[in-house]
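Lab meeting, item 3. Inverse folding demo.
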């Protein structure tokens, strides 16, 4: 199976690779998903760039503490979704492979280390509608499909 691709890869453009890991985190009764709003107003799944020396899980662990103040139990790996986009903020074209995971449980251990983001819980379909990145929407769709399978 090939990875889903979001955005358009334009000819003649140099893309900078930015590998990211993100989590779909439902509330305890699985009716809402938490999203992170960046200072520019865009909504994203919690997570971010994988730094040197990190694997998916260590990067996700760090990001969840930074963005949410959460420790979490990581569940299913949904896969890689590739995204091409231009960041006006950074004046850079990015190739962003997103590695998407489910969080099965979490514990709030303190305030987020990054205090410039806004956090909010949204009903599932509203969360999908609010997300900026197609790869993040795809991650929630994978979670929804799994939820439906486990109910049947």
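The presenter then showed the designed sequence:
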């Amino acid at each position: 199976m090939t990875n889903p691709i979001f955005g358009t890869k334009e000819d003649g453009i140099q893309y900078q690779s930015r590998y990211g890991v993100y989590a779909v985190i439902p509330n305890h009764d699985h009716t809402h998903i938490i999203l992170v709003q960046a200072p520019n107003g865009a909504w994203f799944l919690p997570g971010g760039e994988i730094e040197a020396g990190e694997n998916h899980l260590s990067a996700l662990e760090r990001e969840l503490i930074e963005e949410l103040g959460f420790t979490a139990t990581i569940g299913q790996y949904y896969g890689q979704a590739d995204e091409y986009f231009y960041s006006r903020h950074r004046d850079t074209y990015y190739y962003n492979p997103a590695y998407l995971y489910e969080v099965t449980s979490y514990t709030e251990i303190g305030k987020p280390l990054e205090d410039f983001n806004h956090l909010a819980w949204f009903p599932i379909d509203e969360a999908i509608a609010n997300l900026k990145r197609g790869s993040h929407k795809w991650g929630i769709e994978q979670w929804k499909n799994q939820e439906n399978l486990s109910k049947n």
